[in-house]
User: Which sequence fits this backbone?
């Protein structure tokens, strides 16, 4: 295409300069310029993903990532950097395979991933007939005899009608979280789910599941890609299918680990503004969008503020949370410690929806504070950030809600995230430099406003 | 990340149901559902990019693409499909290479692409010292003696500060379009430009250049990737560099070609609403985002309307324009013909900014019509479409402006487009299914409103 005849009305800018403080508008521009031109987030993400790669809680790679984060926070100019101790669960995948027997009696392997935190088959073959259900309602209608001794296959698809894919993910989430419990309680041998994916490829996606406290037998739970799921459903309509699952995943107790924290000291007081993401990832792919992006964006804000010599009133603290994916131990410990140490937190923002082009900021705070942030909307509009109506906050900062801390989460464009989330496809090449830096810009601009206003 | 605790306020929906017609809001939803669930645009784009690939005007591939478009429009349910004859320029690239001589006298090849429509070196080596300038101002300051007989290298970088990359592209565009004329007039042997790219990789990007009518000697013009450009600039600061260019590109006259048109007849009258993109591409990559996306999105709208049995008042016409990239002959011929045939066109929209997640609609029309479209904004908000302030229209429909036709262009998110535009990187895998379908949804929704209102 050509843009030779582009004519863009300076509507937004005009509106801002007269209705909002000119200084804020200029400072927004300065923050954007610094990050878009000199930002190091993209190069940092390349290091994290390529030199360390995926980094599940409890793994050696995760501890390597904590050392890397300490170094990066120091390089960015933090006045103080430390590791916060936290006990995390250790879950290990090990070797795993899933096969189905075709009409000629030949075994055919399916691409699969055991779900995070699930128990495996202890290296033994679990062989059984597959019983297919579309959803929980169909499952509930089946008699116990149809489930007992079988491998239950739930093929509940991601609902493409939702515009925010986060809503579709929420809608399908119970199958990943709970299907093993539902089926285990009724005597099934194992459970297969369709991956929580917005794509139509054959990539399997992992993610956290849990057993109920009253589950007497913890059955193995695995995910297959959307394509395999649809093919399997089709096959099951005309014939019986036997599956053979062999997996070694298991919980291996707990281990001492760390969140990583760095801050620039407040010039006026010691109250704290938190910006963060989670440093851990699943044990597949490179944890690039989930949530390497959030980590490097948070560090980027500290770097930019320091470089620009912004005189922050309050302490601005970057928190790289441990263990978001399979326990939220980092987030819980952080909230516990601020209570214990009697620290005053005036605001916390997390980003864990990927480093995609930003569209808004979700707010969880009092109606008064919410309205105040929404009143800054015109300052954000020239940066494509317009949606301040959503109401949710990151998993790691939610434990601060009962302490009365106003919370927020960056709302990046959601269309591509669940194509790659928790899978081997979540790699550096899926991240765009400008999109990543714009996300950091939005959060930096919000922190600038809150630091001067609260 | 987890979305388990997502809480989304039904603010938008509430607002719409009471302030706008409930029926419009429901019809918007129906159009979105049909396209997001049953849309074939993504599969069609796979066919176009993988079975045909790039398709420069005048090439056999382009003519193959016209047959494919006829077939797809028929499959989509068009009442009438035809080809519109148009003479297009034929430009051919041929073999080409650019080398620079290092300090040891060894030649090193640089990745390069001749600029579209440029003349080459007729297969002969053009060897000369490189003279570096950052921009036009620096070039103007150089004495003729410093330019004559040299190869001039312009390293004007894409300005990362613009939030809309289209503006950065516009800002840098004159170097691609005019550098050969500037340098040729002052006796240079050839010109090298930094590619118009938002990335920092080494991918060269082509695109249209032109000679001035009074250029006595048409010198060769080539582009190199950003990385090579920066390295070359660095080298030139400490030493002389000799370059050797050999290229065979040339204009080869004209050829009869075709735009492809398909329509569903209006139920009330014969006035026409146009939706389109351009079927041609540059001779590199696969023309996926530029503008295969626009073609399959336009066809998608026709398919969805037909499938849904929407009773369109006016004729809805898909135009797959010929020769946008290097001549705009298709767009000019189309405007010429509607005047000749005395057809009444009430609206035309083009999309040529890629099949990325939509953010708005740019409008070129009377203030009254503009205001009316802007008054529909709340209907679009739940789909992430909020920006109705920009004022430009696609290159192919611009020739309709003097005829008084109200024009629009889809405004997709611009962050990733110029990383791949006009390069070997513009391939199918850069397109996301949901983003592509959402773009079609936005245009379909707008056409629904205009069809019932105008």
Assistant:
């Amino acid at each position: 295409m050509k843009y030779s005849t582009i004519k863009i009305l300076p509507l937004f800018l005009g509106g801002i300069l007269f209705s909002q403080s000119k200084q804020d508008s200029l400072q927004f521009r300065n923050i954007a310029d610094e990050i878009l031109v000199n930002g190091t987030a993209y190069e940092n993400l390349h290091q994290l993903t390529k030199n360390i790669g995926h980094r599940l809680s409890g793994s050696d790679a995760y501890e390597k990532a904590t050392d890397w984060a300490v170094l990066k926070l120091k390089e960015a100019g933090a006045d103080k950097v430390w590791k916060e101790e936290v006990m995390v669960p250790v879950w290990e995948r090990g070797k795993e395979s899933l096969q189905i027997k075709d009409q000629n009696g030949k075994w055919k392997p399916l691409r699969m991933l055991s779900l995070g935190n699930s128990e495996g088959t202890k290296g033994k073959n679990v062989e059984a007939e597959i019983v297919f259900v579309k959803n929980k309602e169909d499952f509930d209608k089946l008699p116990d005899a149809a489930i007992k001794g079988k491998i239950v296959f739930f093929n509940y698809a991601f609902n493409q009608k939702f515009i925010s894919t986060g809503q579709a993910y929420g809608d399908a989430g119970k199958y990943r979280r709970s299907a093993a419990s539902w089926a285990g309680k009724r005597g099934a041998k194992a459970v297969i789910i369709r991956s929580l994916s917005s794509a139509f490829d054959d990539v399997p996606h992992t993610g956290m599941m849990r057993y109920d406290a009253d589950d007497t037998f913890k059955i193995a739970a695995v995910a297959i890609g959307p394509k395999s799921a649809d093919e399997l459903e089709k096959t099951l309509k005309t014939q019986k299918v036997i599956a053979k699952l062999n997996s070694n995943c298991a919980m291996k107790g707990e281990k001492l680990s760390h969140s990583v924290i760095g801050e620039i000291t407040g010039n006026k007081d010691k109250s704290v503004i938190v910006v963060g993401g989670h440093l851990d990832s699943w044990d597949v792919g490179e944890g690039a969008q989930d949530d390497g992006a959030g980590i490097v964006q948070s560090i980027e804000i500290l770097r930019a503020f320091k470089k620009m010599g912004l005189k922050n009133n309050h302490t601005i603290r970057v928190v790289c949370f441990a263990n978001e994916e399979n326990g939220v131990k980092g987030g819980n410990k952080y909230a516990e410690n601020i209570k214990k140490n009697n620290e005053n937190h005036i605001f916390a923002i997390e980003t864990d929806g990927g480093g995609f082009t930003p569209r808004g900021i979700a707010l969880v705070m009092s109606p008064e504070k919410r309205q105040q942030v929404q009143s800054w909307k015109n300052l954000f509009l020239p940066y494509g950030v317009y949606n301040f109506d959503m109401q949710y906050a990151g998993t790691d900062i939610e434990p601060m809600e009962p302490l009365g801390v106003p919370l927020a989460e960056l709302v990046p464009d959601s269309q591509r995230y669940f194509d790659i989330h928790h899978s081997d496809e979540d790699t550096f090449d899926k991240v765009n430099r400008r999109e990543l830096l714009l996300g950091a810009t939005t959060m930096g601009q919000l922190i600038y406003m809150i630091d001067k206003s609260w």
User: Anything to note?
Assistant: Chain B has 13 helices and 15 strands.
